[in-house]
Amino acid sequence: MSTASDSIGVIGTGYVGLVTAAGFAELGSEVWCVDIDAEKIERLRRGEVPIYEPGLAELLARNSERLHFSTDLADALEHARLLFVAVGTPPTYSGDADLSAVHAVVGAIPASDEHALVMKSTVPCGTGASLQRVFAESGKDGLGYVSCPEFLKEGSAVKDFLHPDRVVVGDEGGWAGDAVAELYAPLKAPLVRTDVASAEMVKLASNAFLATKISFINEIANVCEETGADVVEVARGMGLDDRIGAKFLQAGIGFGGSCFPKDVDALKQLAGNSGYHFQLLTAVIEVNDLQKRRVIGKLQRHLGSLAGKRIALLGLAFKPNTDDMREASSLVLSARLQADGAVVSAYDPIAEEQARKLVSGITFAASPLQALADADAAVLVTEWSELVELDWVGVAEAMSGNLLIDGRNALDPAAVRAAGLIYEGIGRR
Ligand code: UGA
Fold it and tell me: Do 265 and 346 sit in the same domain of this protein?
């Protein structure tokens, strides 16, 4: 077997797994990717990329000789000592994380002094300790364990992997933590070496803090609407303070995706399970839920009853540059609009296929103008550049009404108004 770092295994070929695999292959490692989904592995072997992520297809193609795909864990175990675990940890009905895929991996790994699991999946704080207890109880105490949370963002995942703000490596001693740190060394990112529980908490706390920042600015936006201030100006003024920072102060119709809603809830539940009521996170979640629904109020203020009104949704994905529809604000919006009797059409440049699996009763248009044809109002849901750069005069001509709600504060109000449309942002004058 090769040294600990020149050959690695990656278990799970979702966003995190594939980007991690392609990234380490780019840094020179042989990478053995394993997934239980045989069809996905076949597609990857053929050079197809099952998800939309800018730059990923190129990275996989460029490093195809170093990337190996299999449904058999034994292939990874034979060639690699470090096994990066990047399986899904979706929320359960209780809001706790579902760790069944993680447990399936742990169950499938044989006893070994040669191998270590490197946890990339987002797991509750305490998971590493309980997995190490499982190792001990099942005679696998030779297995190493490292928590190495992932901070990449969908849509810029490849860039985030290659230029991380920091790398966090949590372990309790042994060879594996050093080997993981060595793997990341070429990226020259600040390294946080710590214990397993703290590494797990860094991940949950980071996502919860970012989500808090978004809910905070959304509440400021709502107050701006009552007081005549403009949240874009307010965020600009706040963000120049180094202690606050300008990022994640974009008010809008709320955060979505596979991470923030799940991780904020999981941290709240984790605290609750340990006897602590995390009040702040309860508010962060509630503000986010209400924020999506405030768009309905704005539409009603201009149009009266929405029954029979034609509403165009511009964008469906939870954010631009991804086809991910998980917890997208468009899901709540389209359902609420239909419940109020509106006729909904929608356009998304990439996410339509995923959206069709989750949204029913709406018309999927092949272009923005097709979605906007005869619409009484339009809502910018996802700030794809194609949508932000629309010709607003053409939009005004296509619509039968003249209301445009900018759910992401991504448009130039003056340009929209100059085209004869009514512009309504989130917390903007
Ligand atoms: C998020 C984190 O940003 C990553 O660091 C983390 O690794 C990832 O979760 C994860 O845990 O896997 P991601 O969900 O891909 O990444 O997307 P973000 O770019 O963070 O956006 C999340 C949501 O917040 C989107 O719906 C976006 O529209 C919204 N958002 C973001 C705002 O409403 N306002 C902002 O200022 C920023």
Answer: yes
